[in-house]
Write a structure and sequence with these properties.
Structural class: mainly alpha
Helix content: 55-70%
Largest sheet: none
Radius of gyration: 11 Å
Distance between the termini: 21 Å
Shape: globular
Amino acid sequence: EAWLIANADRAEALVELAELRRTAGDLVAARAAFARALRRDDASIVAYLNFADHLRASGDATPAATTPQAP
């Protein structure tokens, strides 16, 4: 986790951090990390796909194509 936070300037690290937060059950922090990842690299297919998976798993009806806003 420390490595992911230290490398938060990379969208890939933020996606992994989001997944770590989601796995821990912190859906708000996961969504915020996805938002940061997509702001860092709005062309990241990996970030969009993982964010879509997160939305489906959490039952959120928000379209995954919409860039998330940090809470």
